């Protein structure tokens, strides 16, 4: 008797990202991958790879419901793995944050996975499947210029933590991936971002610009990352939190053994906060 075909649905599979690497790895392992891309996003890379895909905007209920109908047709009504990978970044100081931009980011990074689980949970329960939420070390450590992005990931971690307990009686596994630095193009929309005029962080304007255009040193190859995440998602008893990618070992160690201020001195050095303090020492206060 032939083994039953398994199906994995991965959101956010634009070219050059983690999602593309994940569906490629699921296919390599014999799992039928279903990718999603934004309605206005190129899908040529998925067509070339012969990977089934559908348009999806995780902020729109109608888009998710249309996807659900399409996935049911492909899978026959069950889903073995749902990977909530769609996400965006927003780089800015906490005091200069455009809240409307952050609301959009929460709508994608946090509420998107919530919507997906709400609509796809019957298919996952039927398959006794797994939900995989792509988190970040940013949700653990106080990485500068990422306070709002970090907040979306911290919220995702803790929502997933409770979801894991709630889904256990229904035989659905929930895995939170604490991702380190991974070589993707997630920063592409921040490349031209600048500090607003009059920002208290203006003395670090050049450093901020360089940060927005950085190529993270020592970042984990996204296909190596995908290989390990996919393998973990298919385990019968996976870890609740799966840490993988550059810097996860050190972040995990210090988060366990250190205090809440463990990373403060490191952030001062990495982001040259001494220069900022010196620039404002003795300067007249703004109204």
Mean pLDDT level = 95
Number of separate helices? 11
Distance between the termini: 76 Å
* Largest sheet entry: 7 strands, parallel
Order of helices and strands: EHEHEHEHHEHEHHEHHH
Uncertain segments are none
What structural class do you assign from the helix and strand content?
alpha/beta
Tally of strands: 7
Classify the helix fraction into a percent range.
40-55%
Strand order of the largest sheet: 3-2-1-4-5-6-7
Q: Compute the CA-based radius of gyration.
A: 20 Å
Strand content: 5-15%
Assign an overall shape. globular
Family: Belongs to the short-chain dehydrogenases/reductases (SDR) family.
Keywords: NADP, Oxidoreductase
Organism: Stachybotrys elegans
Protein name: NAD(P)-binding protein
Give an overview of the whole structure.
Helix 1 crosses helix 8 (222-233), helix 3 (61-75) runs parallel beside helix 5 (111-127) and helix 4 (99-109) runs parallel beside helix 6. This protein is α/β, with parallel strands linked by helices and 287 residues long. It is 44% helix and 12% strand. Helix 1 (18-28) links the parallel strand 1 (7-10) and strand 2. The mean pLDDT is 95.
Short description, anyone?
With 287 residues, this protein is an alpha/beta fold. Helices cover 44% and strands 12% of the residues.
List keywords for this structure.
287 residues, alpha/beta, 7-stranded parallel β-sheet, NAD(P)-bd_dom_sf, NAD(P)-binding protein
């Amino acid at each position: 008797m032939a083994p039953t075909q398994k199906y994995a649905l991965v959101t956010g599979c634009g070219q050059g990202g983690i999602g593309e690497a994940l569906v490629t790895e699921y296919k390599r392992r014999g799992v039928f991958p279903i990718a999603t891309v934004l309605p206005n996003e190129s899908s040529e890379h998925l067509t070339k790879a012969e990977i089934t895909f559908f348009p999806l905007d995780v902020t729109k209920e109608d888009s998710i419901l249309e996807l659900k109908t399409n996935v049911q047709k492909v899978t026959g009504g069950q889903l073995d793995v749902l990977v909530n990978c769609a996400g965006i970044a927003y780089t800015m100081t906490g005091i200069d944050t455009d809240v409307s931009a952050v609301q959009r980011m929460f709508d994608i990074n946090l509420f998107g996975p919530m919507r997906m689980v709400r609509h796809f949970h019957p298919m996952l329960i039927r398959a006794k499947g797994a939900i995989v939420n792509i988190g970040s070390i940013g949700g653990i450590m106080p990485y500068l210029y990422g306070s709002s992005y970090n907040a979306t990931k911290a919220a995702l971690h803790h929502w997933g933590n409770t979801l894991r307990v709630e889904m256990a009686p229904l035989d659905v596994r929930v895995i939170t991936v604490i991702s380190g630095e991974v070589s993707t193009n997630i920063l592409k929309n921040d490349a031209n971002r600048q500090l607003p005029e009059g920002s208290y962080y203006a003395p670090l304007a050049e450093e901020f610009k360089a940060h927005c255009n950085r190529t993270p040193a020592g970042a984990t190859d996204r296909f190596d990352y995908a290989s390990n995440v996919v393998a973990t998602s298919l385990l019968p008893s996976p870890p609740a939190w799966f840490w993988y990618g550059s810097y996860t070992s050190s972040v995990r160690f210090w988060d366990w053994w250190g205090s809440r201020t463990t990373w403060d001195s490191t952030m001062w050095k990495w982001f040259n906060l001494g220069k900022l303090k010196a620039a404002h020492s003795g300067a007249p206060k703004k109204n």
